[in-house]
Amino acid sequence: MATTTAARKTKTRPVTRDHSRSRIAESNIPATMQAAAIDRFGGPEVLTLHTLPTPMPDPGEVLIAVDTAGVGVWDAEMRDGSLASSRKKFPLVLGTDGSGVIAAIGSGVRRFKLDDRVYSYAFENRKGGFYAEYVAVSAKMTAHIPKTLDLEHAGAIPTTGLTALQGIDDALHLKKGETIIIHGSTGGVGSLAVQFAKLREARVLATASGQDGMDFARRLGADMVMDGRHGDIVAAAREFAPDGVDAVLGLAGGEALERCLDTLRPGGRLAYPNGIDPEPKKRPKMHVIPYDAVPGVHEFDRLGRAVEAAKLQVPIAAAYPLVDAAKAHERLAAGLVLGKIVLRTLQT
Ligand SMILES: NC(=O)c1ccc[n+]([C@@H]2O[C@H](COP(=O)([O-])OP(=O)(O)OC[C@H]3O[C@@H](n4cnc5c(N)ncnc54)[C@H](OP(=O)(O)O)[C@@H]3O)[C@@H](O)[C@H]2O)c1
Asked: Which residues form the pocket of ligand 1, taking CB atoms under 6 Å from any ligand atom?
């Protein structure tokens, strides 16, 4: 259940009653909020609980009382400063996505009303990220949660769901009966991409790490699974698709991905979200499609429909309270995460 403004004990901000500017929840929004933020780049230990001013929505924005925030590998790169575009304005609240309820609405926004249950994706949001009790984001990057998910599971998928669906549909244009290797199937994106590929009635060979990972990928619907760290990818793919696979979705860079590409048929497609490291090498007769996840009204509509049609399972590997955001980052760094790690504001 979402943390409501009424439940908060902090000092409240004198809220504007100018309804031409924004519609505000009846219960006052606190002047300050708890957020997991950094004051400098560094290891997980630099991520600590801060008391910060609650952001307010400008025209075209909504204020979300956050229930769940996703924890992604890109958050760790923002935290340690290795992400090229990392902003250097501190304190920096991390978190690119999450879910919650609408607590205030900026002028010009008609799609939402107070207390609507929403999820949102806003990369490097200028008013701070989702590791917070409140986030002010563009309404265009926000949508009502799919009917089949609760707030916790919806909060785990804005970034990974958009990335998985757009990889399968927009980058690869995967069709019924085609064969695909989803490399890195146990991660945040991969665990959803397997299900979206099955929704499109493709045949899926999933690479995973270890027996637990293979069992996990099989449960998500993969037709064949293999250990991508220790198994013979080329031999497995030959058995799976003797004439070569039609497509590869690369969610982890390196030697194992190169072995996946050895098994593509001539004219086959490789798609990968920008950020995998190292980037795969280009080869003759291979269509290479690097891409970024795109949020938007239309994109969230499509995601919502696909989530409901697939009866999407959203595996949550671990949920931490905001105060333990550093522990969540340590867990992420340890690897072998089956699905997604999330932060929950209620547990602060
Ligand atoms: N540009 C964009 O818009 C965008 C959006 C989302 C994601 N991304 C990028 O996409 C990538 C995937 O994101 P994610 O959230 O899914 O990351 P993730 O949760 O870390 O998933 C990557 C998965 O790959 C697995 N893996 C690594 N090497 C493997 C191997 N040899 N065989 C089998 N599995 C292997 C990892 O397993 P282990 O746990 O065993 O290591 C992990 O489960 C990241 O690089 C991210 O930065 C980009």
From this structure: 72-74, 159-160, 163, 184, 186-190, 207-209, 228-229, 251-252, 256, 273-276, 292-293, 335-337
Residues 74 and 14 in one domain: yes
Both tokens of 197, joined, read 């590929």
Q: Which residues contact 195 (CB under 8 A, 6 or more apart)?
A: 220, 221, 310, 312, 313
Domain holding 148, by residue range, is 5-157+315-347
Phi, psi of 68 (to 5 degrees): -135, 140
Distance (Å) from CA 187 to ligand 1 centroid: 5
Same domain membership, residue 153 and residue 85? yes
Domain-ending residue, one of 291, 306, 326: 291
- Same-domain check for residues 76 and 176: no
Token pair 């009635």 is found at 201
- For ligand 1, mutation pick of 80, 141, 209, 218 (most atoms within 8 Å of CB): 209
348 residues of the chain, pLDDT tens digit each: 333 333 333 344 444 434 444 555 445 799 999 999 999 999 999 999 999 999 999 999 999 999 999 999 999 999 999 986 766 789 999 999 999 999 999 999 999 999 999 999 999 999 999 999 999 999 999 999 999 999 999 999 999 999 999 999 999 999 999 999 999 999 999 999 999 999 999 999 999 989 999 999 999 999 999 999 999 999 999 999 999 999 999 999 999 999 999 999 999 999 999 999 999 999 999 999 999 999 999 999 999 999 999 999 999 999 999 999 999 999 999 999 999 999 999 744
Pocket test for ligand 1, best of 123, 163, 182, 207 (most atoms within 8 A of CB): 163
Give me the helices (H) in the chain, please.
73-80, 151-155, 158-166, 188-199, 210-219, 233-240, 255-262, 297-310, 325-334
Ligand 1 atom having least distance to the Cα of 277: 45
Nearest Cα residue to atom 38 of ligand 1: 336
In the reported structure, the alpha carbon of residue 9 is separated from the centroid of ligand 1 by a whole-number distance in angstroms of: 39
Only one residue has tokens 């945040």, namely 188
